[in-house]
Structure to design on (460 residues):
């Protein structure tokens, strides 16, 4: 009997030990939300797992953040450095804006493999980034680095960030952008670069941004845009370049933005001489929402809108060079413009003055003023900035409402233009095309006479 009770007691003890072991395993492995630890000075929420440690004067990333935290809020503290061992958890959203971060070690975020949003904005002491600062963030979709006083960006700072869609770099102190800086950002749709100190846009600065939808570059110091700077931006719909130092913009650059819908170019010192011709031609064909483009030079066109100039305003310009920075193609003016010049040509001109030479025709294709010999040098004939000549100033003005009304309205009666016209073109004694017109009855009579004459010679 005693042996039987001992056996039962042993079985009970074994059962209790097994139950305790399973309970411990359940607490360790399953880890119910109610018993998850929360870092000191932080508040935790279970669904989704959120750790909020904002505005607690923290100087380092707190320890004890649950590994399965989906969102971690550390904004508005005094954190100064981010090291490779700062993050021992896996999260999707990490806010670190409004701190005193001065240094980010290469690979600091490499443990955050599923991170989708990283906000480092409003860290005014963050002036420099190491090349591998964002290594491993291949699932990152949104990166905020606004108002950080960044003066430069390493050429490989965005390497392998293939999932990035939103990049906020506005209101820093960036002076230039490396070629191919964004080449890995094939899914980027929004790029904010306004409020910096950028001076030029090179040929390859935006290469690879094939899905970019909006590009904000206003409030910079941009003076030059390469004619191929936008060649990969075929899907761009919004472009802001207002409040810069642009005097001209290559027409070819705008042709590459074939999907553009909203364009702001106001607040620039536009030069409306011959250098504006490629951009003006692009505006004639584009149907977009655009801001005004007020001319500041030459003085006779100051205050006018570049978009509302007429083709006659550019009729005295030299033939554009397809290989130049402007990248314009050969200009073709309508017959209405040619008609105006045919009526305002010099009253008399000798045959010798219209002898054509290759140099003269190239330098003065549409000039109403007879070229002088010997030809001027290219620097004299093609000034980059110039004042209007008396002939240009005499051209009639076009009101804005006539901008589209006269487009494509050509006068088919014009027979020749400028240097192509014979010397005595305006002389009534010179036979015109109308005087050579043959009526149908005259044509029949001529044919009958020809046949009769042929028969006469045949049978005579």
């Amino acid at each position: 009997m005693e042996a039987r009770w001992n056996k039962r007691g042993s079985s009970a003890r074994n059962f209790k030990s097994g139950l305790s072991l399973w309970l411990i395993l359940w607490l360790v492995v399953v880890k119910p939300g109610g018993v998850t630890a929360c870092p000191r000075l932080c508040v935790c929420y279970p669904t989704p797992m959120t750790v909020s440690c904002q505005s607690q004067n923290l100087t380092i990333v707190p320890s004890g953040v649950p590994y399965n935290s989906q969102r971690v809020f550390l904004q508005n503290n005094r954190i100064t450095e981010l090291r490779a061992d700062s993050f021992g958890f896996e999260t999707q959203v990490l806010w670190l804006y409004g701190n005193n971060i001065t240094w980010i070690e290469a690979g600091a975020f490499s443990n955050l493999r599923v991170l989708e949003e990283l906000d480092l904005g409003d860290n005014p002491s963050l002036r420099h980034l190491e090349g591998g600062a964002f290594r491993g963030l291949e699932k990152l979709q949104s990166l905020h680095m606004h108002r950080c006083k960044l003066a430069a960006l390493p050429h490989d700072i965005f390497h392998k960030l293939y999932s990035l869609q939103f990049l906020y770099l506005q209101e820093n102190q960036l002076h230039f952008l490396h070629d191919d800086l964004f080449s890995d950002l094939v899914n980027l749709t929004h790029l904010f670069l306004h409020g910096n100190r950028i001076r030029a846009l090179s040929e390859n600065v935006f290469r690879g941004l094939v899905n970019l939808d909006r590009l904000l570059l206003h409030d910079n110091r941009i003076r030059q845009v390469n004619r191929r700077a936008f060649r990969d931006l075929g899907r761009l719909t919004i472009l802001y370049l207002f409040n810069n130092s642009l005097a001209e913009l290559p027409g070819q650059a705008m042709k590459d933005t074939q999907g553009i819908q909203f364009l702001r170019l106001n607040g620039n010192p536009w030069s409306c001489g011959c250098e504006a011709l490629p951009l003006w031609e692009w505006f004639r064909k584009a149907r977009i929402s655009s801001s005004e483009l007020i001319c500041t030079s030459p003085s006779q066109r100051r205050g006018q809108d570049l978009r509302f100039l007429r083709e006659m305003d550019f009729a005295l310009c030299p033939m554009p060079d397809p290989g130049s920075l402007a990248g314009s193609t050969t200009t073709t003016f309508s017959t209405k413009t040619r008609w105006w010049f045919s009526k305002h040509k010099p009253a008399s001109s000798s045959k010798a003055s219209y002898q054509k030479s290759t140099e003269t025709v190239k330098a003065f294709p549409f000039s109403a003023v007879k070229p002088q010999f010997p030809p001027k040098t290219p620097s004299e004939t093609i000034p980059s900035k110039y004042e209007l000549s008396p002939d240009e100033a005499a051209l009639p003005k076009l009101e804005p409402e006539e901008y589209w009304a006269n487009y494509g309205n050509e006068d088919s009666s014009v027979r020749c233009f400028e240097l192509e016209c014979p010397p005595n073109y305006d002389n009534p004694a010179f036979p015109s095309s109308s005087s050579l017109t043959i009526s149908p009855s005259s044509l029949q009579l001529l044919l009958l006479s020809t046949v009769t004459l042929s028969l006469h010679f045949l049978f005579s």
